[in-house]
Structures are given as structure tokens and as C-alpha cells.
Amino acid sequence: MAKILSVSGSPSATSRTARLLRHLDDRLRQHGHDVTPLDVRTLPADALFGADFGHPAVVEATALFGDADGVVIGTPVYKAAYSGLLKTLLDLLPQYALTGKTVLPLAPGGSTAHVLAIDYALRPVLSSMGAAHIVPGWFTLDKDITTGDDGTLAVAPGTAEALAHVTDTFSRVLGGRTAVLAATG
Ligand SMILES: Cc1cc2nc3c(=O)[nH]c(=O)nc-3n(C[C@H](O)[C@H](O)[C@H](O)COP(=O)(O)O)c2cc1C
After folding, report:
1. Are 6 and 34 in contact (CB under 8 A)?
2. Predicted pLDDT of residue 142
3. Which pLDDT score is estimated for 138?
4. What radius of gyration do the chain's Cα atoms show?
5. How far does residue 184's CA lie from ligand 1's centre (Å)?
6. How many folded domains does the chain comprise?
7. Going by CA atoms, what residue is nearest to atom 22 of ligand 1?
8. So what's the pLDDT on residue 179?
9. Longest Cα pair distance anywhere in the chain, in angstroms?
10. Nearest protein CA to atom 24 of ligand 1, as residue
11. For residue 138, is it left (φ>0), alpha (ψ between -120 and 50) or beta?
């Protein structure tokens, strides 16, 4: 079992990114992982925008990153990159906050023009923070993520399979790394 922090960087109160991550959190729990959700939009804006490194909410978020073996980073594609909200939190973390961690990047967006945003925009930031292994992520068209009348999340066929595949790959890589680290101390 690994500890996973699942971070949504959308500022939207009705975020598809957050709903998608919470849906995938359940899949990761079924694989036996201990998953903690973190919605950056719930952190105090004054701390994020005032670079308040010592704010208790920032200290707590930093500790969650420190405790995690793996991190899911979800962000809507904004202006061909990731959200500014996600960056406000990443900027408050230690430079190498992702050292030794396995990371799964996920990004819903509105246009296939930006299907590579994870690779050219997000991945370099995660690498610069020391991520040990950034597994293949997935860009999801927003229209493929909908909510049914009963409030349940519906993901379009094809997209659902692709997301399950990258999530299961993340789980497998993470499980392997955690077992090796436990064996070698
Ligand atoms: C301010 C803003 C900028 C956006 N810029 C892009 C963009 O450059 N490329 C793109 O594919 N989608 C863009 N979108 C669409 C969102 O990425 C897409 O709707 C996503 O699903 C929103 O996720 P959320 O519901 O979690 O906030 C933008 C949306 C907003 C609100």
C-alpha cells in the first residue's frame, strides 16, 4: 500500500478536474492505496497570493506532500498550460518537494489544440521539483466528463479506458517502488 496525495488545481466550484480525480481516487483505493484528496481552491487565498510560507494551511499542505509516496496532479488546461491556482501552491512548496515521488499528471481541457500541455508545460515543473518518476498522464476533453442526473460522474467510452490505464500504470509503478524502498530500508 502506498500513500497518495490527489491534488486538484482547478479554481472552479463545479470542477470537472476535481470530480474526475475523486472518481480515480476510488479506483486507487480499490488497489489498496491510502488516498488523501487536496483541492487547492480550499486553501486560504491570502496565503496563496501573499506567499505566506508559514501559514498553517500551507504548512499542512507541505506536510501532505512530504508524507506521500505518490502524487496525482490534476489541473484544467488554462491558456495552453496549467492553472495559475495550481502554480500558487507549487510555488510555496520546497524546491524539491517531489523528490522520490511517483507522479501522475492529468489535465482536462476544452480543445485538442492543447493536448500536449501536460508534456510541454506541467511535466518540466514537476521534474524541476525532483519527481522520481512522472508516469504517462492524460489530457481529457472536458465534454467527455459529465455528471448524470443522479450526480454520478460519467466519462465517455474510450476516455474512461485511457484514464483507467494511466491510473493503473501509476498504481503499479508506485506499488513496485514502495515495495523496493520498504525492502531496502
Ligand atoms: C480561464 C480559462 C482558460 C482556458 N484555457 C484553455 C486552453 O487554453 N486550452 C484548452 O484546451 N482549454 C482551456 N480552457 C477549458 C478548460 O481547460 C476546460 O473546460 C476544463 O475542463 C476546466 O476544468 P475544471 O472544470 O476543472 O475547471 C480554459 C478554461 C478557462 C476557464
Report:
1. no
2. 97
3. 98
4. 16
5. 43
6. 1
7. 76
8. 81
9. 49
10. 15
11. beta
- Give residue 168's domain range: 3-184
Centroid of ligand 1 to alpha carbon of 108 (angstroms): 7
Quickly state the pLDDT bin for 153 (edges 50, 70, 90): very high
Find the CATH number of the domain harbouring 98: 3.40.50.360
Residue nearest to atom 17 of ligand 1 (CA): 109
SS3 state of residue 154: strand
- Where residue 132 falls (left for φ over 0; alpha for ψ -120 to 50; beta otherwise) is alpha
Q: Round to whole Å and give the CA distance between 155 and 82.
A: 21
Q: Which residues line ligand 1 (CB under 6 A)?
A: 10, 12, 15-17, 76-80, 108-111, 114, 142
pTM over 0.70? The answer is yes
pLDDT of residue 81: 98
Q: Mean pLDDT for the chain?
A: 96
**Helices 16-30 and 159-184, axial angle in degrees (round to 10):** 50
Nearest Cα residue to atom 3 of ligand 1: 78
What is the band of 149 on the pLDDT scale with cuts at 50, 70, 90? Answer: confident
Cα of 120 from ligand 1 centre, angstroms: 16
- Tell me the pLDDT band of 100, cut-offs 50, 70 and 90: very high
